[in-house]
UniProtKB/TrEMBL annotation:
InterPro entries cross-referenced by the UniProt entry: DUF1731, Epimerase_deHydtase, NAD(P)-bd_dom_sf
Protein name per its UniProtKB record: DUF1731 domain-containing protein
Domain of life: Bacteria
SUPFAM superfamilies: NAD(P)-binding Rossmann-fold domains
Xref: Gene3D superfamilies: NAD(P)-binding Rossmann-like Domain
Natural source organism: Streptomyces marokkonensis
Domain NAD-dependent epimerase/dehydratase positions: 3-221
DUF1731 domain span: 273-306
Amino acid sequence: MKIVIPGGTGQVGSVLNRALSAAGHEVVVLTRRPTEPGQVYWDGATPGPWMEAIDGSDVVINLAGRSVNCRYTPANLRAMMDSRVLSTRVVGEVIGAAARPPRVWLQMSTATVYAHRFDAPHDEATGVIGGTEPDVPGYWSYSVGIARCWEREQEEADTPHTRKVALRAAMVMSPDRGGVFDVLSWMTRLGLGGPVAGGGQYVSWIHDHDFVRAVEFLIDREDLFGPVNLAAPGPLPQRAFMRDLRGAWRMPVGLPATRWMAEVGAFALRSDTELLLKSRRVVPGRLLDAGFGFAYPRWPEAARDLVRRRKA
Ligand SMILES: NC(=O)c1ccc[n+]([C@@H]2O[C@H](COP(=O)([O-])OP(=O)(O)OC[C@H]3O[C@@H](n4cnc5c(N)ncnc54)[C@H](OP(=O)(O)O)[C@@H]3O)[C@@H](O)[C@H]2O)c1
């Protein structure tokens, strides 16, 4: 297949590009800074010669969006919103106008669309969309708003010959440098991999092999469309998540951090505490119902595999 990945130069794009290329597919990445063969220039917002890459392709997987690993300043929040909404809009317009449109458009979304919650997991049917939870910082609703606008752009796109799927992805764990697993591993090996603010908040995650397999599954399954959770069936509280990661690294110590210490750490790392403190308890209802089997449903085994590959 010819698979076009707008925004495919980042962590998730690298995981997909490697796996899909190795499987024999032709992968074209749309980027604002092409540097390699297989990369085509686009600006992420307006039509251009890159449209030729989409016309005649089989699959589009749009990942573009400003990184959320930043301080949530008004300017950064605006860039997070605009980069997602505008890129999704133009991808939809170009697919809609293509003479030979792709048969499926997988659009990245996020598990962050669901509410901060501890008591029950969110699947696609019964999950609660966030944004109105009491007892959370008001600005957290902005991330949910970004996710909703992002998904709405795809829903409203007029692409009658192209199946549309929104990927409500949890944190994609891969051993690549600079990814979330790398950052958490780095903290763990410094002895800082303990519970944060009590560690009761849930962490949803997906192993990179399962992420790729789920994407391939969704490409093949003509009957699946709309939002699909891409998360392992075993989300777990942050304190248990970090305990298992320490175990995988054979690190006996993991200093706990208070909410206040997390604020200082996030400031120092130019990041935001929402990424650490929001309880994301998300499960893959539709994938399991459709018969998808996870190779890594539980975190301890996934963490051990990722550490082994990281060391290698
Ligand atoms: N990583 C995860 O665990 C995870 C989980 C759930 C959802 N997601 C979402 O999945 C997508 C990919 O994640 P990632 O971790 O691979 O992100 P990433 O490493 O930050 O890569 C995002 C890509 O988006 C492009 N981009 C950034 N700003 C842009 C803009 N203003 N206009 C157009 N393109 C822009 C960049 O491509 P160029 O600079 O080459 O143009 C970059 O390669 C993101 O939207 C992210 O929010 C990620």
